[in-house]
Write a structure and sequence with these properties.
Radius of gyration: 23 Å
Helix content: 40-55%
Bound molecules: P-hydroxybenzoic acid
Structural class: alpha/beta
Shape: globular
């Protein structure tokens, strides 16, 4: 009798201990590193809001584990991103790293993903080469060449032959310049000058003066999300539009986050991109309404969609692997096909990069508000940068 009691007590004890470790292991941890302060804070705000919305809509349990979202501010400094990633991997033992608001932040972290075999979901940064920086990178944002090439195909058929390019002087800007120029030249157009401005706190004035003197048909611009409003303001102040120079660019310059505050100078601007808040699909309407409701009327931009879709890719991979990690989790991310608020998209299993539609859009007033109205679709665009 006593022996029996002892044994069952032992069993209970063992089970308790087992249950204890099971609870500790039952978390599925997502380390979300974003610029939450500084000049690129809007990117962090959009992505965090989108990630939280995804969790609110899809629950905080996946693959039998409780999801823990750990959000960290890297202040957009690459050494800080890298240090935080290291801590998240070593101390928190995250299943996946995510976020990455700018190219240098993603590139600084890629070696950590490789060494620790931790999947790294890039939700914002958009230089073509990022997916090649580590075999553990999966991208749900976009690649600049996708948008730049699509616009260079549209331009020469629409009365624009001579173009000056003006880009932020780092990865995505250099991609935008290179791929726009190559494709426009191939199409019989001409890039008569290529100008580069500093990535941080650019003063566009001297560059815009130069553009005025060159008198191109259009000025093609890439600046990172958040910097478009300053560019628009100075473009108007210099009277460029009145001088007959059209403003065109990738959709980063007519970012939905700040488009409404840009005023009339933005009206009519043609851009190419993968997401517009006015994308006409039931899924997007639902997404925009839910996002605005949860965030005091804030309109989601393409950064939010990169974050939302990134969470989708992570959740589905966590389901397939029952809350797995490492290579198994990574493999379950590859090849996912689904409908995003941006339209159809998939993660190319070979390149781990996003394939999606690129839309040509024009800024128009709808119901008193400025929107990027999509009027032409180039379906299933792979990053043209990958074949180089
Ligand atoms: C980038 O740094 O890769 C980046 C940032 C903002 C954008 C696009 C690309 O809008």
């Amino acid at each position: 009798m006593q022996k029996r009691y002892f044994l069952s007590a032992l069993m209970v004890g063992l089970l308790g201990a087992y249950a204890g470790t099971a609870t500790a292991q039952e978390k599925f941890k997502i380390g979300l590193i974003l610029p939450m302060t500084g000049p690129f804070a809007s990117t962090g705000k959009q992505i965090e809001a989108a990630a939280r919305l995804y969790m609110a809509q899809n629950g905080d349990t996946v693959g039998g584990k409780k999801v823990e979202l750990i959000v960290k501010d890297d202040t957009s400094a690459p050494d800080v991103t890298k240090r935080i990633a290291q801590e998240l991997v070593v101390n928190d033992k995250v299943n996946v790293l995510a976020g990455f608001g700018l190219t240098p932040l993603a590139l600084a972290t890629a070696p950590i993903a490789t060494q620790s075999k931790t999947p790294m979901v890039v939700m914002a940064a958009a230089t073509s080469s990022i997916t090649q920086a580590s075999p553990y990178v999966v991208r749900t944002s976009f690649a600049l060449p996708q948008a730049a090439v699509a616009l260079a195909d549209w331009v020469p058929n629409n009365g624009i032959k001579k173009v000056v390019t003006l880009v932020s002087d780092y990865g995505p800007g250099i991609d935008a310049e290179k791929f726009f120029k190559e494709r426009l030249t191939f199409n019989g157009g001409e890039v008569i000058d290529t100008l580069r401005v500093p990535m941080r706190n650019p003063d566009f004035a001297p560059f815009l003066q130069k553009v005025r003197d060159l008198k191109p048909d259009a000025l093609f611009v890439f600046v990172p999300s958040g910097a478009g409003a300053a560019l628009m303001k100075q473009f108007a102040e210099r009277g460029m539009d009145k001088a007959g120079i059209k403003l065109i660019g990738t959709g980063d310059i007519t970012d939905d986050d700040i488009l409404n505050s840009m005023g009339d100078v933005a009206n009519g601007v043609v851009t190419s991109h993968h997401y517009s808040a006015s994308h006409n699909s039931p899924l997007n309407k639902k997404f925009v309404a839910a996002f605005e409701k949860a965030n005091a009327g804030l309109r989601p931009n393409f950064m939010a969609v990169g974050g939302y879709d990134g969470m989708r890719v992570i959740y589905e991979a966590a389901k397939t692997t029952k809350g797995g990690s490492g290579e198994a989790l990574l493999n379950a991310m590859k090849g996912q096909v689904f409908e995003s608020p941006r339209g159809p998209m998939f993660i190319d299993a070979q390149t781990r990069d996003v394939v999606h539609n690129i839309y040509i859009r024009k800024v128009e007033k709808v119901g008193g508000q400025l929107f990027n109205q999509e009027f032409s679709t180039i379906p299933d665009v792979k990053d043209p940068g990958k074949s180089k």
